[in-house]
Amino acid sequence: MTYVKILHQASDSFQFLVAFILAGFVAESIRVWLERRGNYVKLVNDTDNLCFLLSTNAYFTTPSQCDLRQKLLRYSLLAFELALLQERCGVTYLADNETELMNHLMKKNLLLNDSVEKEWRALCPHDRVSSLYYFIQCEINNLLKEDILPSDYLSMFTEHIMACKTQSKCLMNSVCSTNPIPY
Known about the structure:
The chain is mainly α. It has seven helices and no strands. The protein has helices spanning 3-56, 63-89, 91-96, 98-107, 116-122, 128-145, 154-177. Helix 1 (3-56) packs antiparallel against helix 7 (154-177) and helix 2 (63-89) runs parallel beside helix 7. It is elongated and about 90 Å long. The model has no long low-confidence stretch (mean pLDDT 82).
């Protein structure tokens, strides 16, 4: 064999290898996009279901109880927004731009001006989303103790809170586990 033939064979093999690698990259990019899209849709649905349950299944009569329902709904939406921001911007960006993040959340009325510092500082800095779902679950437990919610509602609320928390984690963790990064 001459060197020219060897080079042509190597060139053909290399072209096949490049096409094979690119096809794998495209397939992986599509798989990751579908996974993220699925996690997003599930999180939207789970958050919507939780808000619906909080709005319709707790029969609040006093102004303080109505304020609590509003707070629980706001916390549900705040956890949703934080999960989306972490998925879009990344954990490092959110940690480095905390003031900008808080301003963004205040503009959306997810953090209230009069309680920003108190609420924000109460959240675990490394996992604010889980902290919010924890607070929601604790308040549901308190409502059960005060007989504002029937006792058989505990499992229903817990199931929906855990579904939201799970989907938030799936969405946020897909950023760190994507390898290779297709975007």
